[in-house]
Amino acid sequence: MKRTGDDYLDSLHLADIQVLSTLGLTDEDIAALRAQDKVEDAEGEYVIDAFASSDSLDAVVKVLSLTGRGINEVLLRDGQVFEIDGIKIECFLAPGHTWGHMVYLIDDRYLFTGDTIWFGADGGYSFISALAEDNRLAVRSLAELETKLEARKLHPMFLTGHTGWTDDLYFAFAHRDKLCSPFKKKVHDPSAPYDAYDESDDTEENAKRGFLPPVQKI
């Protein structure tokens, strides 16, 4: 386990030591650090403490700059594309539910939305409002995601984290400007046959039968 963790941190070139100064460091200071014996590399960064406020949280945050030198690399970035065993994976940053929430497009066909979209019987909503870090940001992220997909004429299968899937882009974004607030109101159709929490058919046998059939249009 320790070796796995060490390999992961090495892959991101995580720094071993942080040097602080009450007056800051100059370019000459950084060059001197690089010249030290057994120091592979060193970089300077800007750091500020800031106050952040959202719909549900007020917090003091530390903001760190990225230099692009290759130290303390970010694991994934918005728009980043990479492959695993020939499978293309594209990252879309969609903050709101969490600050760093990511959506993943697989081979331009399958979109894993996580907690970005909540499907109701009449279409998709921005995810559960009571659980979001910033609801207004979540709504904006959902609209931006739709814009990106439409600009590239992509109509993937949407696979959510909790409420099933659809291959209908217009159904998925039907209520992109509205929040899902399940704790404030009753569902509008209690007799609906579909129960998002009923996973009795989610078995290994069913999973091996192949692709799911297209969803019924509403």
Give structural notes.
The protein is of the alpha+beta class and 218 residues long. 20% of the residues lie in helices and 25% in strands. The protein is built from 5 helices and 11 strands. It has a 6-stranded mixed beta sheet. A 3-stranded mixed beta sheet has the order 7-8-11. It has a two-stranded antiparallel ribbon with strand order 1-2. The longest helix is centred in the middle third of the chain and has 17 residues, at 135-151.
Number of strand segments? 11
What is the distance, rounded to the nearest whole angstrom, between the alpha carbons of the first and last residues? 48 Å
Low-confidence stretches: none
pLDDT averaged residue by residue: 82
Question: Biggest sheet, in brief?
Answer: 6 strands, mixed
What's the gyration radius in Å?
A: 22 Å
Helix amount: 10-25%
Element order: H for helix, E for strand: HHEEEEEEEEHEEHEH
Number of helix segments? 5
Shape: globular
Structural class: alpha+beta
| Order of strands across the main sheet | 3-4-5-6-9-10
Determine the strand fraction and express it as a percent band: 15-25%
